[in-house]
Write a structure and sequence with these properties.
The protein is an alpha/beta fold. The protein contains 14 helices and nine strands. The protein has helices spanning 6-14, 36-42, 53-67, 80-84, 123-138, 151-158, 161-170, 172-195, 210-235, 252-255, 271-277, 289-294, 297-309, 327-338; strands spanning 72-74, 88-90, 99-102, 144-149, 200-204, 240-244, 262-265, 283-287, 314-317. It has a seven-stranded parallel sheet with strand order 1-4-5-6-7-8-9. Strands 2-3 form a two-stranded antiparallel sheet.
Length: 340
């Protein structure tokens, strides 16, 4: 029988204090757990839930109840920030998450800077804040994780991404100015999440990978701007999870410089080796989402047991779940963690 509440367990894990067992969570955003099985079970569905706080909150409760994840993770996509900063968004379907349909600017040199607080004044951000508020009051023992798209990924969703990546090298002054502007907008977004009851902020920045940026650009752009956002959230008294996609060999020397309270990684990364090389890091992850989608409960249980045997600090999917992931596989994952 569990001794701690889910909120106590994640707070103790992120502060490196003793707890009864590892938490098992799914933060939302890029790591969205609103699968079709859950939506069809209860009738609270997407895309309607992206724009209605009552549906968003109810769906988050459905997900938590059915999957066994020990948190509420919202929003259910990575488009709130870019839409508020001007890009066009396709809101998707029951089976497909929203995506950027058109970036508003062709270049960082042509970007128009909106007033501070542009994200928090948007209708969809207000939906997120209201849903967080509802959840934090209705079930205070279950942590609400506010998920934020990281600085580089948000910037690459507002400026044409191919040109943006080139301009990180060729237009450095303008690129730094733009990413800094985006980071300031994200800080206010995080502040409103925290003010409405988010107990943890999760930053997922899939553009900030070693494969995409290379080690030099990762150190010049990803680390300082993720840390600026993380430090600002820490000043609010809220812990931070940072998710980095892809292989990490090329940027391994930079990982320890990230200020996140936990570092979440993809299935390609060996968490035992990461723990060995960076023992100060709180590790999170990294059960294969391919296994969760295409495996079976037995294979999921075995994969989970391997992570538990490696003493991973926080158990979570390695990346974003497919909306077609079978509920039974997720339940095998969370059930195995809870029954250790």
């Amino acid at each position: 029988m569990d001794v701690l509440s889910p909120l106590e367990r994640i707070e103790l894990s992120l502060s490196k204090k003793g707890r009864d067992r590892a938490p098992v969570i799914c933060p939302g955003g890029m790591m969205n757990s609103a699968i079709v099985d859950v939506m069809e079970n209860h009738g609270h569905v997407l895309p309607e839930g992206h724009m209605d706080a009552d549906i968003m909150a109810a769906l988050a409760e459905d997900v938590q109840q059915d999957t066994g994840f020990e948190n509420f993770g919202i929003p259910f996509c990575m488009t709130v920030e870019a839409e508020a900063l001007g890009s066009d968004v396709d809101m998707g379907t029951l089976q497909c998450e929203p995506k950027i349909a058109r970036e508003i600017f062709p270049s960082v040199t042509q970007a128009v800077y909106r007033e501070p607080g542009a994200i928090v004044r948007s209708r969809r951000a207000e939906t997120v804040f209201n849903a967080i508020n509802k959840l934090s009051h209705r079930q205070p023992d279950i942590p609400v994780i506010g998920s934020i798209t990281g600085p580089l990924s948000t910037a690459a969703s507002v400026v044409d991404p191919m040109r943006f990546l080139k301009e990180l090298r060729k237009e450095k002054e303008s690129a730094h100015r733009f990413v800094d502007y985006v980071t300031d907008q994200l800080i206010e977004y995080a502040r409103y999440m925290a003010d409405n009851g988010a107990k943890v902020i999760s930053i997922a920045d899939p553009t900030a990978t070693g494969e995409i940026l290379g080690p030099k650009m990762f150190g010049e752009y990803a680390v300082p701007y993720i840390n600026k956002l993380t430090d600002a959230v820490h000043d609010m008294g809220v812990p931070v999870i940072v998710h980095i996609c892809g292989r990490m060999q090329a940027v391994a020397k930079h990982v320890a410089a990230l200020h996140g309270d936990a570092i979440s990684v993809d299935a390609l990364v060996s968490l035992p080796k990461l723990k060995e090389s960076c023992p100060e890091i709180t590790t999170m992850g990294n059960l294969s989402t391919y296994m969760l989608e295409f495996g079976n409960p037995d294979s999921v249980q075995k994969g989970t047991e391997q992570l538990l045997a490696s003493h991973i600090d926080i158990l979570a999917p390695a990346c974003g779940l497919s909306t077609s992931t079978p509920l039974a596989n997720i339940q095998a994952f969370t059930g195995t963690v809870k029954n250790v």
